[in-house]
């Protein structure tokens, strides 16, 4: 059954004692069918921790993250929040994620009091609407495996690819561009912060896929290893993550065993919601 339970579990925080920061929280990475935790867990959990320390008058406008070590899904991560600054219009928080006594993740998050201001953004690309596309579960119907079950039902979001998925093979052209319609399986609450957390959570699943598409490496390539290295995200306007969002993506650079993915989230009526940049390590498992 497809639900958004994994997302809700991921952002559930428990406040814990700390002598090294202003406040600290523990959160549990969610199970995945490979050795290390999903990077979106860490991004969303760090933002959730930072959000617990800022006033209701301000919302997240950027987060910059560095992934230092792989995270064990069997143990919680402890997030220490340093309250760097609270100004009239902006607040800054630094978050450090520790597991097994080692620093595994760092993030700096900035929050802003909303202002009335003119808007400009690049237009949304023209792609088929999500109702005309197959879900991941439909694409993978009849294929067995723990990875298939996870891609189909375990990621909390319905995902529909243009021009096609890269799960088992590269569907469509080996182009540097693709798009993914995303929507939470379940209806979320009406708190705008929940929807920012959901977008931060889902953004890491597919941001490196344009890199894999260019290289001709579907996710099921034997020996393929990828890892998030660093990540930046900017929020431009509020949107619901339980309504369809278009995640337009491109491969901006591939070199030295690394790939840089860029992405933009749009509402289905074309309003820019968020921008993402992420660099990842690519170990192809075979000659390219």
The first-level CATH class is given as: Mainly Beta
Strand ordering within the main sheet:
1-2-4-5-6-3-9-12-11-10-8-7
From the N-terminal CA to the C-terminal CA, the straight-line distance is 37 Å
How many domains make up the coordinates? 1
How many helices in DSSP terms? Answer: 6
The backbone outline, from C-alpha atoms, is globular
Task: Please describe what this structure looks like.
By secondary structure, this protein is of the alpha+beta class. The chain has a single domain, classed as Beta Barrel (Porin), CATH 2.40.160. The protein has six helices and twelve strands. The N and C termini lie far apart (37 Å). The mean pLDDT is 97.
Write the layout of secondary structure elements.
Layout: H1 5-10, E1 14-16, E2 23-27, H2 39-51, E3 58-67, E4 77-86, E5 90-99, E6 102-113, H3 136-139, H4 146-153, E7 157-162, E8 177-184, H5 192-202, H6 209-215, E9 225-235, E10 245-255, E11 258-267, E12 272-283
Antiparallel strand pairs: 1-2, 2-4, 3-6, 3-9, 4-5, 5-6, 7-8, 8-10, 9-12, 10-11, 11-12
Helix pairs in contact: 2-5
Key traits:
288 residues, alpha+beta, Porin
Can you describe this structure in just a few lines?
The chain is an alpha+beta fold and 288 residues long.
